[in-house]
Amino acid sequence: MKIVIANWKMNMLGREAAAFCEAFKADYTPKAGCEAGIAPPFTLLREVAVHAAGSGVKVFAQNAYFEPKGAFTGEISMGQLKDAGCHGVLLGHSERRHVFGESDENLVKKLKAAWEYELLPVLCIGETLTQRDAGFTLDVLHKQLEVLNATGPGPLVLAYEPVWAIGTGRVAEPMQIEEVHAFIHDELWRLWSDRGLEVPIQYGGSVTPDNFEGILKVPFVAGGLVGGASLDPAKFLKLVGQTQASL
Ligand code: PEP
Question: Which of 81, 137, 148, 243 has a beta carbon 3.0–4.6 Å from 86's, enabling a disulfide?
Answer without folding.
Answer: 81
